[in-house]
Amino acid sequence: MSKSTSVVAEGEISGKSTFSRIKEILSKSGPLVALLIMVIFLSFRTRSFLSVENIINVLRQAASNSMVAIGMMLAILTGGIDLSVGSTMALSMVLMSRVLIAGWHPVLGIVVCLGGGCMLGLLNGLALTKLKLPHPFISTMGTQNIFRGICLLLTGGTPISGMPAVVKWAGASRLGIIPVSLVLVVFIYILFGIFLGHTPLGRRIYAVGGNRETARLAGVSVDFTLCSVYALSGLMCGVAGLILAGRVDAVFPMAGLAWESDAIAAVIIGGASFFGGRGTLMGAFSGGILIAVLRNGLNLLRITPDMQTVVLGSVIILAVFIDVVRNGGFTRIRKRTV
Questions:
Q1: CA distance 154 to 81
Q2: In whole angstroms, how large is the CA radius of gyration of the chain?
Q3: Which whole-number Å values give the CA distances from 143 to 14, 126, 139, in the listed order?
Q4: CA distance 5 to 14
Q5: For residues 38 and 297, is the Cβ–Cβ distance under 8 A?
Q6: Poorest-pLDDT segment among 22-26, 28-32, 37-41
Q7: What's the distance, CA 124 to chain centroid?
Q8: Greatest extent of the chain over all pairs of C-alpha atoms, in Å
Q9: Of the candidates 230, 254, 180, which has an alpha carbon nearest to the alpha carbon of residue 76?
Q10: Distances (CA, A) of 18 to 1, 4, 15, 23, 155
Q11: Quick one: pLDDT at residue 22?
Q12: pLDDT single digits (tens) 166-196
């Protein structure tokens, strides 16, 4: 090979690696850039957006959504989905309210909320693995309706107000000007960051999402991993329910309605892939904040609820489209159909 040819080849390799690095940086920083643009736009369009009270309100709203987004991200990492997150959160809250009404200690009520969410999530995992259903879309769509129906049966369709002080502390109190709920979110995200990056089960979750059959051949218990993922998703829904109940000082059976849409949008906007095996907690958190800011901005701009639904639906489609393009999905889809 001549010297000139060698130089060209090295340049091509260097160019490709540089392009790959730029693409990776944009992929990771995309949600933050979009969030910054949205903040600047809303700051000019409405004076109240940057007020301290409004920022605190956005962070409080984002707290519950961010917890649900963790569970959704775990499911998406395995190449699955959890459509029951909103109903799981609502039923966790309702179970807590029932034991509190029965006179149980508030701490035991919190245990029921978290443990109940975990068990509901485990039911999703067992339905998927033991019934050999082809995709969690089916099992979680079924439990979505079952859990919501149980909420309505247990409450008679009416809200239950008056939460204990410890629940209100978790959802509505502040440490200075910082919401306690935000502190809880940061703490839990750190814990899950350690879990995903430094534990065998965390690495198996990525492995199952990357290639399920290869993971199975490598000795990974796929069924156990999937059950663990959906149990953890349910647990995060329980935490989200606890925070929401404390913030609004009430439990209502229709809580979390359509929250799965926000969670999916947050996770995909944050860089996770519907193809599985790819996603970060920082991305999910950034996506969750972005969705909360978007909802808050639409309210401040006095956009009607109907139009807000249209906007958020469009955001989800755009996020999934970006994911398909980012991961060469069109090529992969064509290969599957050949």
A1: 27
A2: 22
A3: 50, 12, 6
A4: 14
A5: yes
A6: 22-26
A7: 16
A8: 85
A9: 230
A10: 24, 21, 5, 9, 58
A11: 56
A12: 999 999 999 988 999 999 999 999 999 999 9
- Token look-up 């935490």 returns 239
Query: Which residue, 64, 105, 52, 112, is CA-closest to 247?
Result: 64
Pair 250, 160: CB distance under 8 Å: yes
Alpha carbon 128 to chain centroid distance? 20
**What letters, b where the CB count within 10 A reaches 16 and e where it falls short, cover 57-90?**
bbbbbbbbbbbbbbbbbbbbbbbbbbbbbbbbbb
33 vs 329: which has the higher pLDDT: 33
- The structure tokens listed for 322 are 């970006």
What CA–CA distance (Å, rounded) separates 188 from 206? 19
pTM of the model: 0.86
* pLDDT score, position 7: 44
